[in-house]
Amino acid sequence: MRRRPEVRGSGAPEWSPARLLAALMISSVVALAVLAGLVLAVIGALTQDESDARQAARQAAAPAADMSQQDALATAPMPTADPDDALPGPVSRQAAGVLELPRATGMGPADVPTGYPRTPEGSLAQLAAIDVTAMQSGSMDGVRRVITEWAAQGGPTPETWSGVDGMASLLSAAGLSGAGSPQLAIVVRPVMGLIKGTVGEDFAVVCVNFEFTVTVEQTSRIAIADCQRMAWVGDRWVIGPGDEPAPAPSVWPGTEAAIAAGWRDLRHV
Questions:
Q1: Chain segment 191-200, per-residue pLDDT in tens
Q2: How many domains does the chain have?
Q3: Which structural domain, as residue segments, surrounds residue 168?
């Protein structure tokens, strides 16, 4: 099993992708003078989300004695970051490490690019393609369709996947229905990544740090990170069975904080 060197976290509570997306939309909503009641409702939801995240972190910190290697890798704590670190910040003069990712060779179910090799880098490229396709759909149907086709049995479902939760938070904070809106534009760029570790050739825990650009009359940007168990099933990588891994820090790509957290620049070859 290959593991990244352990990095000590800061101890700050980690914000989930759903919470960060809701916060992004709150900034746009406030700027557009939408009713204060919406803001209060979202803040209430975020408070509960933080409580749930802390409970999950405590559980991850005390794994069961009979935990498998895959579970141990997935639940191992990641570095943490302040929520403000997810917002655009000064780009570092320091060069980050580089991860070279393969390019897709075909199109798979739910219009997700596929054909990546059976390597850790291939699994990371596949996760990036899954997330980009799901979130750029801008609708609940879009994210549900993607995870239905790209999760192994025992993995995330259209009800439990963090991507579904994130889309629901974004649409709710924007005052939109589950169908989205022609006025909503979401551009998702996988900018940095890391390979947390592998167990054999068919299992990897990988993370992608995305730059989200969301436009609803005005444009806002934020970094959102996603870590998933990736399993080789048949002839492709899919999101594997089990609970989603410990979250990676959502940090604006290219900053000192991102490099310190272990993120590496992604380069397609």
A1: 999 999 999 9
A2: 1
A3: 2-268
Q: In this prediction, what percent of the chain has a pLDDT beyond 90? A: 70
Q: Are 238 and 230 in contact (CB under 8 A)?
A: yes
Sequence-ordered alpha helix ranges (H) in the chain: 17-31, 36-61, 69-75, 120-136, 140-150, 162-173, 256-260
pLDDT averaged over every residue in the chain: 83
Three-state DSSP class for residue 122: helix
Task: Report the half-sphere exposure of 79 (CA within 13 A, side-chain side).
Answer: 22
Does residue 33 come out as left (phi exceeding 0), alpha (psi in the -120 to 50 range) or beta?
left
167-190 b/e with 16+ CB inside 10 Å = b?
bbbbbbbbebeeebeeebebebeb
Distance CA 214, CA 32 (A): 14
Which residue in 97, 109, 144, 132 sits closest to 234, CA to CA?
109
19: pLDDT strictly greater than 70: no
Q: What is the pLDDT of residues 149-171, one digit of tens each?
A: 999 999 999 999 999 999 999 99
